[in-house]
């Protein structure tokens, strides 16, 4: 049987942009429920300036609780060297770094050029690997950019090529940050990447990070899967919507991805009933902006 | 540029199962708004026993209004010979017939065996073609059945083979009635059908009818497109949800399919702003069970 790995991002990408501060114990309860649902990999938080992202101010405490859960691989995002050092000191299994494929989004997001980001992150990747940490390198806006529109596939693949050349043992996520990638584009980019840079060290080198903003999240996951991608980011309850676009869905929902995989005969290791429980819990967090659709379907509930 | 044809089904599949009777003038207004949005093909209603489906009792009046709209191809569903004769007499451009790929669903739906349905429908198809009408042959539950679960691909293709042999000039819709088809299954079935029975008479022979019940509607349309399907059923506003499963989405939303096609560089002929207007109108019909997600996305609204 085929299998796919879900990297659950509700605790980080799902929560980070919501207004009311989510109490640390709620975040920990969410992580525990996700773990109980069989999710064995999670983006726990971000060691970012708490003035910039107040919701992530308690990442150290949430990470500590996560590290106590058996078999859970904990990723923490680090925007810079300081964040990486904190992630390393705190014992995160994997550090996540990120830059954008488009110059304008990278400038808007981290106020520097792509090349400056890449050079800094190269040093962090190298140090993280030397320290025995796993690395996730996120390439944001790889398909569509809020400033530049559709991203040429060659531009995305150029950056994938640079990143993969750093170290064959790191995982590269080709991210649809805006949710506006098209399935044929996702298929082509992943097919090209996977053909060009095959798996090394027995692990998949590529991951897909999708959003469901325009209703294409599941279609894009299906396309990535069919092109050979085996690692998927998603958020239980489809958290991660934009607070300024009421009703706009966020990260592709873990329950939607799990259902898709289930129907395609792909094992994900999740316990379906417990995943829906976790999704319900996530969606009920005050301030949360849930997406996902499984809550409505009795047949799926009963499956 | 590639192009796809959308067959808009909100007036029939979108409305038929909702409780309150939708006034005839509302149905006609919906048809007009959909036509104004550039949709040139529509499933207007069904000549079915009004006691069985009271919502469709005014199909003749809605059809009359639809036939007055320039360039609109009007389809009417006919469950039997009586319905076909009514459709022909009323001047429908295309008659839609249907049977299920699974024995148990066909029995539950029309109280007879598949072979009995097929033989009857064969006669209707032949008479409709002799009368110069276009024909749509819908194969329901071609991927998944509420009673039998996942439908073997060979079973679906067996029925496609029988139907295509009737007449190369009819259009066959391979329908995901329950919304639980998986994209890889859709891709395989369409790829096989299109390879085995190529287009005849310069028109696509196959169509995909998808529901979004489990969030896979757009993914399945993308898979069908990639396999070569060029005709898609969808309902503005994602109407067609089940009244007994609150929040369960119905037909895949026309705005979602149109957005998918737009992002894949496929022309559909729709006017985006007017389509959203029609979707809003559809979703606001009292008793309607809307799905679709475009209403929430300002960027899509402004596109």
From TrEMBL, chains A, B:
- Keyword field contains Metal-binding: yes
The Gene Ontology terms for molecular function here are: lyase activity
| Pyruvate carboxyltransferase domain segment(s) | 4-276
InterPro entries, sorted: HMGL, PYR_CT
What domain of life does the native source organism fall in? Bacteria
Ordered alphabetically, the record's keywords are:
Lyase, Metal-binding
| This protein's record includes keyword Transcription | no
The protein here is known as: Hydroxymethylglutaryl-CoA lyase
Q: Which source organism does the UniProt entry give?
A: Falsiroseomonas tokyonensis
């Amino acid at each position: 049987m085929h299998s796919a790995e879900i990297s659950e991002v509700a605790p980080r990408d799902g929560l980070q942009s919501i207004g009311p501060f989510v109490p640390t114990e709620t975040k920990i309860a969410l992580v525990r429920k996700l773990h109980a649902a069989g999710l064995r990999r999670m983006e726990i938080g971000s060691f970012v300036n708490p003035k910039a992202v107040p919701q992530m101010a308690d990442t150290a405490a949430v990470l500590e609780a996560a590290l106590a859960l058996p078999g859970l691989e904990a990723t923490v995002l680090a925007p810079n060297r300081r964040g990486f050092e904190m992630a390393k000191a705190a014992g995160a299994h994997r550090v996540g770094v990120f830059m954008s494929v488009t110059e304008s989004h990278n400038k808007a997001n981290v106020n520097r050029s792509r090349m400056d980001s890449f050079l800094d992150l190269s040093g962090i990747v190298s140090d993280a690997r030397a320290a025995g940490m796993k690395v996730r390198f996120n390439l944001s806006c790889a398909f569509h950019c809020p400033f530049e529109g559709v991203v040429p596939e060659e531009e995305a693949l150029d950056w994938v090529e640079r990143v993969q050349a750093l170290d064959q043992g790191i995982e590269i996520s080709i991210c649809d940050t805006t949710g506006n990638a098209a399935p044929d584009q996702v298929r082509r980019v992943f097919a090209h990447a996977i053909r060009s840079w095959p798996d090394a060290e027995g692990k998949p080198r590529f991951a897909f990070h999708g959003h469901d903003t325009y209703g294409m999240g599941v279609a894009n996951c299906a396309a990535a899967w069919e092109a050979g991608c085996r690692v998927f980011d998603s958020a239980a309850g489809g958290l991660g919507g934009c607070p300024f676009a009421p009703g706009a869905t966020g990260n592709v929902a873990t329950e939607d991805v799990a259902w898709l995989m289930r129907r395609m005969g792909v094992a994900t290791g999740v316990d379906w009933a417990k995943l829906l429980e976790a999704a319900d819990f996530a969606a009920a967090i005050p301030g949360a902006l849930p997406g996902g659709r499984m809550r409505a379907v009795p047949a799926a509930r009963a499956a």
